[in-house]
Each structure stands twice: as C-alpha cells, then as structure tokens.
Amino acid sequence: MAVSNLYIRHQGPVLSGLARVAWAALTQKPDPNAGPPPTPGPNIHAVVPPRPEALVAAMVEWAGGDPKAWKGTIPPYMFPQWGFPVLGRTLDGVAYPLAKVLNQGCRVEVREPLAMGESLELNAHLHAVDDNDTRARIHQRLSTAVQGKEPGLMADVYAFVPLAKRKKDGPRRAPPVVPSDAEEIGRRELASTAGLDFARLTGDFNPVHWIAPYARMAGFRGIILHGFATAAIATEAVIAARWMGDAMRLRSLEVRFTRPLVLPARPGVFVSPPDEQGRIPIAVGLAPGGEAAMLGHIQAQPV
C-alpha cells in the first residue's frame, strides 16, 4: 500500500531526534582509548501525547494487519515511532563512532496493552555495553506506560558498532539461514519505495532506506528496509496465520536482524514448531535453507 506524505506531520520529534543523532555523529571525535561507558546510564524521561489513530491504523495496514484486531490499542512493534528520540539521548557522550552504529535487533514484551487516546510515559537508558576492542554491542532499554500506570511495554534494542578490522583467524562464518524445515506462512511484495513508506509512518528517514546512491555509498547493494519494518511484517503474518487474527495474543517478540533486506524484494515469513517454552521460531528470507534477513522467536500470551 502507498503511504501518504500527510503522516510526516506527526513525525516532528522523531525527525528532530534523528537530526540530533546525525549532528552528534558528524561532529564527535571518537576516542579509541575511551573504553565502554558506565552502565546502566542515566534515565531519560519523557511524556508524549496520544498516538494519532489514523497513523496507528496506517502502520498496521502497511504491516499487513487489520487495525480492528488491535481493539483500540497500539501495536508493540510501533515503539520506535515514539521511542527513537529518548533512545537517541541515551547515547549522549558515548565515545563510539555513532555514524557506524548498526541496528542488530530488539526484544519487546507486552505486560499490558497500550490504550489509544492516552498520553504515553517513557523511560529509557543505556542498559549495557559489551566491548571486545574489535566491536561494541550496545543494549538500550525503553519502558512505555499509559501515563499514571505501570509500564505496559518493555523494549530492549541492540546495536553493533565495529571498532577495528577482525583478524582472519579461521574460515569465514556461514551466514544465518532460514531453517530447512520451516513452514512459509506469508510472503510480501516490497517495492523499492517500501523504506520510504515506513519512514513516513515512523519518522526514521535514514537515507539508506530510501536513497539508493546513499545506500550504496554506505556499503549496501541498494536501498534496504528498516529492521523494525521486517519485524512488523513478520508479527502480523504470525497473528494472521497462527493466532486466527487475534492480535491481543502477542506476548513477546525477540529478533536479530541478520542480513540487510535489499529493496525491491519478495521475502517470505517462516515459522517452525514451538520450543518447550512455547516460543515460535520465526524467520524472514526468500526460502528455507536460504539466507535469512531476520531470525528470532515470537510468543503468545498464556491461555
């Protein structure tokens, strides 16, 4: 579906946050001897107004879902739309080269559905950093609550920062693949404009998602889809194929973005039998045995 430019009017805070991070990346002087920052970092607090109902509905429809299935609540996979500004501020003062930060994955846990029409209270901090001198893995945490209530959504966001070239000390690791026995539950036609459409819905206008020359200059084969967009599509596919359209069953989603999804593309969503904890293995790629753009697990609320 085509997404209207009118939704950009709702993205002011995200665009400001993106510009803030971009300016910090351009002007910072990374210190290779600084080491990891102390964690957990300071808490960043904010209150944001209710999410526009039309924007939420457009997001769900873009992801392949039915807005009515969310029963007046906000889909958890939409958290970057309101969380990006405060998450960006948790990196203030970090000495790593912010221009090289790559989104590696996320985990979201639904504790209580977030009602539409309510202001949202946000708390975010830099939770942990794993630095081995060749790369740093950054772990940020965001809680979202309907104002005046306990947090209803917990989101952990993981990023990767290359620090030095790795030594070639063995055979090259095989790329992550879609499990050979996985079942396809959905397939999506994604035009070269899919990244721009998702940006209109979330405010994440990173040029690698909609400007081909910039994406190639950044080292990609072409425009790539946002990892969070891939996660949204996969979530709605599971809701439709495994939970009979009941979006309220979503309890948690944990995913790794394993390979850039270059646009245009026609990826499939695949699942395997649940593990002993009831988590459904989920993958996004072209076919079983082929390279995966995303791997992870999704879990339903207990009955």
How would you concisely characterize the structure shown here?
With 303 residues, the chain is an alpha+beta fold. It is 23% helix and 26% strand. It has helices at 12-27, 53-63, 79-89, 194-202, 212-217, 227-242, and strands spanning 44-48, 102-110, 120-131, 135-146, 153-162, 183-187, 250-257, 268-271, 280-285, 292-300.
Keywords for this entry:
Thiol Ester Dehydrase, Chain A; 303 residues; single chain; 10-stranded antiparallel beta sheet; alpha+beta
Walk me through what this model shows.
By secondary structure, this protein is of the alpha+beta class. The chain has one domain: Thiol Ester Dehydrase, Chain A (Roll). It contains 6 helices and 10 strands. The chain has helices at 12-27, 53-63, 79-89, 194-202, 212-217, 227-242; strands spanning 44-48, 102-110, 120-131, 135-146, 153-162, 183-187, 250-257, 268-271, 280-285, 292-300. A 10-stranded antiparallel β-sheet has the order 1-3-4-5-2-7-10-9-8-6, covered by helices on one side. The longest helix is centred in the N-terminal third of the chain and has 16 residues, at 12-27. The protein is globular. 39% of the residues are buried.
Mean pLDDT over the full residue set: 93
Written as H for each helix and E for each strand, in order along the chain, the element string is HEHHEEEEEHHHEEEE
- Please give the largest β-sheet: 10 strands, antiparallel
CATH architecture: Roll
> What name does the CATH topology carry?
Thiol Ester Dehydrase, Chain A
**Spatial order of the strands forming the largest sheet:** 1-3-4-5-2-7-10-9-8-6
Class based on secondary structure composition and strand pairing = alpha+beta
Number of strands: 10
Outline: globular
Report low-confidence residues grouped into runs of 5 or more: none
How many domains? Answer: 1
- The named CATH superfamily: Hotdog Thioesterase
- Hey, roughly how much beta strand do the residues contain? 25-35%
